[in-house]
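User: Some background: our group keeps a shared notebook of sequences we're curious about, and every so often someone picks one and asks for a predicted structure to add to the entry. Today it's my turn. The entry only has the sequence so far, pasted here. Could you supply the structure so I can complete it?
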Amino acid sequence: MTINVHLVGDCALRLWGLTPRQRLERLLRGFPEARLVDQEQPLPASGEVLLLRADYAYDERVMRGLMKATEVALQDTRDGTVVAARGDAGRWHGSARLDGPAMDGLATVSPETVAEGLQAKLRKFDRPWVAPVRTDNLQRLEKALFSGAYKGVTDIITRCVWPTPARWATHLCIRLGLSPNAVTAGSYVFAILAGLWFWQGNYGPALLAAWFMTFLDTVDGKLARVTLTSSQVGDILDHALDLIHPPFWYIAWGIGLGASWQSGLALWDVLWVIIGGYIAGRLCEGAFKFAAPFSMFIWRPFDSVNRLITARRNPNLVILSLSWLAGHGDTGLVLVAAWTAISTLVLLVRALWAIALSKSGHEMQPWLSRVDPHAKDNPPLVRLFAPGTGPADV
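Assistant: Of course. Here's the predicted structure to add to the notebook entry:
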């Protein structure tokens, strides 16, 4: 069924480089059923119509809900402003208005009631939202949108170190006109350089390249989300790089040590533990899907904390960087192998436990779905993974 979408009003302010109207146009591309009606044209005489205020920013989950709902008026719960309406075209008589008799009989809904809070890809719960774009809240809204683009559960470097510089870098990319795929291409370049320099034993430049690659890996996703330019190709490129490059870095690190390898363990035994553990860990995460349709790392508080430090690229890079600074590159690789083995064992136990509970009829729910992230007396762990601020609060 085609839904005729008409944007009401306008706003010249730019949010992450886009006016609210441009943001809506990009957001609507993700809904094949939506047909954007030219602003100068009257509404069609029949069919389904969706009116949207073009001086607001909209959560994708809210838009998805509006595409499914019928005969509803969406209110901004902060002041009762009607920001969207969905119904039969006949009630508007060709005039795109969000007030007057045309609104009679429409069921009033809020962002929370028309959408769901889980953002599966970002492993987080937050309130669905709509927000006005005004001069007095523009900077706060930009900051909130950027924070909302972050995964709720990730490693400690991405969670605690990268956010502020990544926000600056995202602004710079927008000013320079760089696309997310261009930033991803830069990640590939630095990933290859890091691997080559590891292989040659040039660990200083290699580690700088590796850390810059991990930084760009954060920036490209945030740039895509805040500018609504995510694409299937970009997603494939980004995830392919994330999956493939870490084992090659570890192999190159070991080969780069050459004759300086002094550990009592055989180099390739250490590397096989790292590679095997890395693959097994990924398989454990996939196996968890047999128990629940969400990420293992949002199942229980333990799993979210475990994701901060589990043996993935960034925590392993911390180990390798510290070992290089201490002059013990071989010890660093052995420590990565040990930490990978321990982490994989933990993931295996968690996956098997979850599958067993699921088969016994236990209800599987993410732990953040059972807490109110906006409660004032939340414990530190809730505040860490669900800080309770976002576009809904602006």
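Suggested note for the entry: The two ends are 34 Å apart (CA to CA). The CA atoms of residues 25 and 139 lie 22 Å apart.
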